[in-house]
Amino acid sequence: MSKSEFSQSLLANSARPQTAADKIPIIARGAVSDRAKEVLNQVERFVEEECIPADVLFHSQLGEGERRWATYPPVIDELKAKAKKLGLWNLFLPKNHFKEGAGFSNLEYGLMAEYMGKSRVASEACNCAAPDTGNMEVLAKYGTDAQKKQWLVPLLNGDIRSAFLMTEPDVASSDATNITMIMEKQGNDYILNGSKWWSSGAGDPRCAVYIVMGKTDPSNRDTYRQQSVLLVPAATKGITIERCLSVYGYDDAPHGHAQISFKDVRVPASSMVLGEGRGFEIIQGRLGPGRIHHAMRSIGAAEKALEWMIARVNDPRKKTFGKQLSEHGVMLEWIAKSRLEIDAARLIVLNAAVKIDEKDAKNALKEIAEAKVLVPQMALAVIDRAVQSYGGAGVCQDTPLANMWAQIRTLRIADGPDEVHLQQMGKNENKRAREVREKLERQREAGDRLVKQSGVKPVGKSML
Fold this sequence. Notes:
Blueprint: H1 3-15, H2 26-29, H3 34-61, H4 67-70, H5 75-86, H6 106-116, H7 122-125, H8 132-142, H9 145-157, E1 161-165, E2 182-186, E3 189-200, E4 207-215, E5 227-233, E6 239-244, E7 257-268, H10 279-313, E8 319-320, E9 323-324, H11 329-358, H12 365-390, H13 401-411, H14 418-430, H15 433-454
Parallel strand pairs: 1-4
Antiparallel strand pairs: 2-3, 3-7, 4-5, 6-7, 8-9
Helix pairs in contact: 3-5, 3-6, 6-10, 6-11, 8-9, 8-10, 10-11, 10-12, 10-13, 11-12, 12-13, 12-14
C-alpha cells in the first residue's frame, strides 16, 4: 500500500462512525467472537434507537398513586417483542456454565450490558434485568428439574418476574451470618417467620416467586452452614408487603424495593434449593457474575452522563461570562478526566469477566471485588460532573442525571458494602507482608554490598 493509499484509508476509517464492536478495548478484542461482535452492534442500535427514546414513554405510562404498582408500562411488552425478534434475549447466561442462554461468555455479555446501562428499559426488554438474571442463574445451576419447570422456564420466557430476599431491617446484613429469618422444618413443609427488606422487584405485579435466604439450622457451630435458600411463591398465605422503600426519593415503580413480613408462611420441602445449609454457597455463586453485570451497566450510565455533559457544554444558548461552557478550561478538564476514568474502569471489569470465564466466580473474587468497589465510585464522579455542568437542571427531572446518580449510589451498598470488600481485599493483600519485607531486605543487602564494593559513601539509610 502506497503512502497515498494509506492516508486515504486512514481518512476513510476516521470518517466512518465507530460501531460498538469497533470500540471493544484492544486487549479484549481477541476474546470476543465474530457472532458476539455482531450481536453487540445490534444491542447498541436497539438501545440507542429503540430503548432510550422509549424511556420517556415508560415513565409517562407509569401513572400516579396505586396505579404505579397495579400494572406496568405497556411499552415494555412492545420492546420485548422487538428484542425477541432480533434475537436479543437472555444474553446473560455464560456459555461455559449454562445451556439455557444465548451462548456468550461473561466478557461478551459484559460488553453488551454496558449499552443496556444507558437505558431504564433496555435490560428488561432483553430479559436481562436484575434480580431476574441472578435468580435464573441460581435456578439453572442449582434447581431441580421440577423447580426449573415451574420457575426457570417462565422466567426465561419473560412471562413472570422474581425477587431476591436476603437483607433484613433489624440486623447488620452486610454480615449475612446475622440474618434471623427462621425456616423451621415441620413434616414435609418449611414454616417461615421473619422480615426482609430491599426486596428489589417485589413491587412488580408480575413478580411470581421470591428466592429467600433464611436459617434452617441456627445452632450449627459453622455459622456458614446455618443458612438455606427456599423458593417461595409470592402469593403464599402469610406474606405481607408492608411498604416499598424509596431510593433518594425515587420509588422505582413498578419494580420497587419492598419490605416484606413472613408470618407462618408454609412452603413444601421441595422448595429447598440444593439442600439445607447450602445457602452461602448458592448466594456467593449468584452474586459474583451479578456484580459484573451491575458494573458494566454502571459504565454505560457513566458514558450516558458524559454524553449529556458534552451536549450541555456545547449548547450555544448556554454562555457564562461571555463564553460557551466548553471554552472554560475546567469543563474540558472534566470531560478528559471522565474519559480516562471510564476507560480505566472498563478494563477492570472486563478483566474480572475474563477471570470468571477462565473458571468460575470463585476464581475471580479479588477481580470482582475490585470492579464492585471502583466502578460505582467512578460513575458517581462522572455523573456528578454532568449534574454540575447543568446547574439547577441537573438535579431535577428534566435530565436523567439525578435518577442515575441515585441508582448508582445504591450500588455502593448493594451486593455488599464497599467496606466489606475493601476489608477482605486488604487482608488478602496484606498476607504478602512477610514475602515483601524479605524481598526488600534482600534487595537492600545487595545494594549495600554494591556500594561497599565500589568504595563510595552511602547517601542514605534504609528504613527497613
